[in-house]
Amino acid sequence: MTEILALANYDVFVGNCTESLSGFLSNYSHRKVVVLTDEHTHTFCLDRIRPLLPADILEISIPAGEVHKDLNTCQFIWGKLLEFGVNRNDLMINLGGGVVGDMGGFCASTYKRGIDFIQIPTTLLSMVDASIGGKLGIDFNGVKNSIGVFKDPKAVFVDPFFLDTLPKRELRSGFAEIIKHALISDEILWRQISSINIHTEKNWTPIIIDSLKVKQKIVVEDPYEKGLRKALNFGHTIGHGIEGVMLHKENSLLHGEAIAIGMAIESWLSFHKGFLSEEEFISILIFLKRTFNLQPIREELIDDFILLMKNDKKNESDEIHFAVIGPIGKVHVDFVRDVPFVKKALEIFNHNLLQ
Ligand code: GLY
Question: Which residue, judged by its Cα, is nearest atom 3 of ligand 1?
Fold first, then answer.
């Protein structure tokens, strides 16, 4: 059974994609179809959709991982599109996680001023977050998603089948965005989510649908992040900074692992301001610690990390903008703290909250 969620200009199909995709692709007969994969999705995911595709699909495969979400890889993709003679009427299918979806969508939107593309997310993270909402882009000069566009796909096909191809660590990374959606929108959803054990959970479909509905409501109301959509940045102001400084280090963090640290610290900011009660804050912290095995932020990286946060597109001068929460289910955007206070919050995280 496929569930269809409508966004302003496109639908998100949740369920077995082999049912919904073939009908959609019939609109593109006699056109070129390009499939972008990374080395993992080429091996583990492409076979699921291959029988639905024309025999003469054009394949582009890129190396996996956030470090490749850059201009060099874009040049490679644009070069292949030109080499294959892809034109404005043709279709690009982005089959992969957030990197493939964000970068593939960006390349499709800019190639020859834009060709149609669809997203087939294969990770939990991209199923509940990255593949919907039209944000596309790449990292540049160490700043995450600093080059990009807003452009909607023609459709998104969320098929939980692909989760079986994922390592547990990747699954857990995506779970961070599910936690975020619950914390910013719905106390009852939070209670359901906080009873999930990702190691034993088998039925992800209803969890994905509930989480997608949170994002759907927000991006339909505020597609260009003028106000409400900033709520989705909860955990991300600090999380992006941590992810950015760790990106080229050994033991780099997955997006959701960095966001989990960000949510812990930004929940403390929410508690300190009096938005979250102590009881709520402790319940969030305990759950994040148990699920993500949170580690301290290395002291020697803190200055780089502050610099990255100041460079983040949301922040001006010495003021850092946050989305904070409290009570659970309610979010406050454009909450501002200065750099010394943010440093203090990091110290409290390292020395008090992790005990
Ligand atoms: N991932 C945050 C957003 O889509 O706005």
Answer: 232
Catalytic residue positions? Answer: 113, 135, 177, 215, 225, 229, 233, 236, 240, 255
Please indicate whether residue 180, judged by its CB atom, sits closer than 6 Å to ligand 1: no
Those residues whose C-beta lies under 8 Å from the C-beta of residue 273, and which sit 6 or more positions away, are 324, 326, 335
Pocket test residue of 232, 237, 255 for ligand 1, highest count of atoms within 8 A of CB: 232
Q: What is the pLDDT of residue 167?
A: 93
DSSP for 130-163? ITSS-EEEEEETTEEEEEEEE---SEEEE-GGGG
Q: 324, 332 in Cβ contact below 8 A?
A: yes
E strands of 231-288, at which residues? Answer: none
Does the CB atom of residue 324 touch ligand 1 within 6 A? Answer: no
Average pLDDT over residues 189-216: 96
Write the CB contacts of 259 (distance below 8 Å, at least 6 apart in sequence). 176, 177, 180, 235, 236, 239, 243
Structure tokens at 78: 């644009």
Q: Using the predicted structure, report yes or no on whether residue 82 has a pLDDT greater than 60.
A: yes
Beta 319-325 vs 331-338: how paired, if at all? antiparallel
* pTM of the complete model: 0.94
Rounded Cα–Cα distance for residues 62 and 103 (Å): 11
Tens digit of each residue's pLDDT (9 = 90 or more) over 329-340: 999 999 999 999
| Binding site membership of 133 for ligand 1 (Cβ less than 6 Å) | yes
128 lines ligand 1 (CB under 6 A): no
Measured at the alpha carbon of residue 143, what is the angle toward residues 138 and 148, in degrees to the nearest 5?
Answer: 30
Q: Which domains does the chain have, with CATH numbers?
A: 3-165 (3.40.50.1970), 168-353 (1.20.1090.10)
